[in-house]
Amino acid sequence: MAAPRTPAATAPIAPPSLWDPVVRLTHWGIAVAILCNALLTKGGGVTHVYLGWLAMTLLLMRLVWGVLGPIEARFSAFPPNPVAALRHMGQLLSGRVDHYPSHNPAGALMVYAFWVTLATVIATGLYLTGGATPMQVAADQAAVASGDWSALIKESDGESSDEDKGLRHTAEEVHDVAANLLLFLAALHVAGVFVESRAMRRNLVKPMVLGDRRK
Ligand code: HEM
Ligand code: HEM
């Protein structure tokens, strides 16, 4: 018989004692790229664009894994369900929570919010750099640093219309606001992980790091 996939159908089942390597690699890679780009690198600088492309690659990898990966990593294991998320929050207040084979319903909403917001940051970043690869951005910036402005002049060839300037300004605003939203979600997420770990009486962080296969 095919294994049941929805959390409702499989509860109570414990979450994995160790997330697979792709989930762990994409999780920590994306987390580091976001934190560095939001807090440390120069917006639009070479390192920023490299880390942005790294985040994009890892996000695409994770999305493919949501279809092809092991059952607990698939989208079908943690569907977005606001009603179930509210029920789960109610359970948290009462101190008796169901266990799920993947992310709990509140965590699942957080995961989708992360991915949509990150995709927005990446799309606006790509627009702002005209889709240039990190290597092209590095070459252009090196040329400008050595006094050769032709790359930038080429970019702004022809009069840019008010509409273009307006679009660029909007993209900058959206990029900045969405990046700050990512930081807000990250703080909420980390607090949520610790609250859930307490409520479920199990360490949720360990399976995202090295885990314990014997459990
Ligand atoms: C990993 C996710 C990312 C985060 C958290 C992030 C965050 C930020 C932040 C906070 C700023 C504003 C910096 C400031 O005000 O000085 C910024 C600017 C910028 N970012 Fe990103 N970024 C990300 C990804 C990307 C990507 C993928 C690209 C391009 C491929 C990109 C290109 C740019 C550019 C060109 C600017 C300068 C915008 C301007 O002229 O004001 N970013 N980014
Ligand atoms: C910017 C920082 C972070 C981002 C963007 C982020 C994002 C995410 C995402 C998207 C997932 C779902 C993983 C997947 O299915 O692929 C997740 C899960 C998880 N994250 Fe993070 N995370 C961040 C920081 C952290 C930190 C600092 C911790 C540790 C305290 C942490 C602990 C976890 C845990 C334990 C899970 C699995 C939760 C569960 O068992 O359902 N995350 N995170």
Task: Kindly describe this structure.
- Helix content is 67%, strand content 0%.
- The protein has helices at residues 7-10, 21-39, 46-68, 82-94, 105-128, 134-145, 150-155, 162-200, 205-209.
- It has 215 residues and is mainly alpha-helical.
- The chain starts with 6 loop residues before the first helix and ends in a 6-residue tail after the last helix.
- Helix 2 (21-39) packs antiparallel against helix 3, helix 2 crosses helix 8 (162-200) and helix 3 (46-68) crosses helix 5.
- The protein is built from 9 helices and no strands.
- The chain has a single domain (12-209), classed as Fumarate Reductase Cytochrome B subunit (Up-down Bundle).
- The structure holds protoporphyrin IX containing FE (HEM) (2 copies).
- One protoporphyrin IX containing FE binds next to helix 2, helix 3, helix 5 and helix 8.
Please describe the topology of this protein:
Elements: H1 7-10, H2 21-39, H3 46-68, H4 82-94, H5 105-128, H6 134-145, H7 150-155, H8 162-200, H9 205-209
The structure holds protoporphyrin IX containing FE (2 copies).
Keywords:
disordered N terminus, Fumarate Reductase Cytochrome B subunit, 9 helices, binds protoporphyrin IX containing FE, 215 residues, elongated
Question: Given the helix and strand composition, which structural class is it?
Answer: mainly alpha
Ligand inventory: protoporphyrin IX containing FE
Low-confidence runs (pLDDT<50, min 5 residues)?
A: 1-11
Oligomeric state, counting identical vs distinct chains: single chain
> Judging by the overall fold, what is the CATH architecture?
Up-down Bundle
CATH topology: Fumarate Reductase Cytochrome B subunit
Shape: elongated
The total count of strands amounts to 0
Mean of all residue-level pLDDT scores: 89
Strand content: under 5%
CATH class identity = Mainly Alpha
Helix count, DSSP H or I runs of 4 or more residues: 9
What percent of the residues sit in helical stretches (DSSP H or I)?
55-70%
Task: Write the element-wise H/E pattern from the N-terminal end onward.
Answer: HHHHHHHHH
Q: How many structural domains can be distinguished in the coordinates?
A: 1
